[in-house]
Amino acid sequence: MELRFELNGRDVAVECEPQQTLSEVLRNRLNLTGAKISCEVQVCGACTVLVDGLPVSSCTYLAYEAQGRTVTTIEGLEDRDRTLHPIQQCFIDEFAFQCGFCTPGMILSVKALLDDNPDPTDDEIIHHMDGNLCRCTGYVSILKAIRKAAAVMKEGRE
Amino acid sequence: MMPLRRFAIHRPADLREAAEMLDHYGENGSLYAGGTELLLAMRHDLLRYAHLIDIKTVAGLDGIERRDEHLHIGAAATHRTIERSAVVREQLPVMAEMAANVANVRVRATGTLGGNLAFAEPHSDPATLLLALGGNARAQGKSGERTLAMDELLAGAYENSLAQDEILTGVDVPVPGPSQRTAYLKFQVHERPLLGLALSLELDDDGGVIREARCAVGCVSPTPCRSATAESLIAGPADSLEQRIEEAGEALADEAALTDDREGSAEYKRHLIGVLLRRAARKCLNGNG
What is the pTM of this model? Predict the structure, then answer.
């Protein structure tokens, strides 16, 4: 089947099989390796990408489902001049990662949260991020980065 | 990474076509609604289907609306849709609260109520709550439509009682009156709840007497279960419920036929049932259920 969707602001068309997952198409056909594969059972969140703004587990989400939709991966977050997205910058500023394997998924989950709820409480952040696991940094610095990103993005809008 | 075996996806235009497809493909075909459970089982080769029938393509199957005394929730409604639905939040807030805590944010965005119930995973949150709320499943087959109570739909672990050509189209949940209080609580340390418990109380006009109770426990048996003994113990004066609740918890635990397994000992699960039932009763009676 021919799959057409908007990927990080550009229209793409790619041949794929019905049983192929979105992460297989992104990583193996389109060479976007930002979405990581880990648990493969929708638990860890390392493979998170956004489809029409909502976070999905690209390791288990059929590429077929992306037909005609808008997909955002970590590669699509920075500006055209390569300035990092405020969420990316805040993760660096707050040392919110060590090995970085969970980070693309974390950042995309945060983007979904802040696009929907620009000023979340700590409880709302923790509830939303509950399905993104990090095995090395610890979650406190991630929470700090998210709080800071919310503040920076709010400032940007004012 | 283990790739999925090859399959074809079919897109029925309506329920009749979907029913015909199910009948035609027989054991080689399955409905596909969100894939959050089905695809995991297929990836691990626990299930093999050469044909998936994408039931989401049937228009209107994700609708949520008030129908007489019921709230109808379409089978293809995602957990997120239910969580955010204005009508659910207003008329059945406990359902919205439950949906907001299913699995994680990604599963909620793609997983559907119908898929969850039809897959009959013993750790289903919606199944336990709907059993206590008296929700009914609607099923459509080639020869017509029928209604099944939750305990009729759920035949066993990963087993539903739908016929080969039948499609779960949604659930009808009685809209609670002003004197009904319902709470759903769960205990969870890993990705699936270890125990889910729902309690629904029908109070008299001044709230002093519990006229009727329904309670259900999930996760610890092949399907969620109720206990008539527990329910009759809970009914009675509200202010002395605390004195009856321990015995009610024991009765519910007896009904669940608890076993020791990797999720915990039967003794531990019995303890949790007691704790969650007491908390659910408090939540109901404090008026925020």
Answer: 0.97
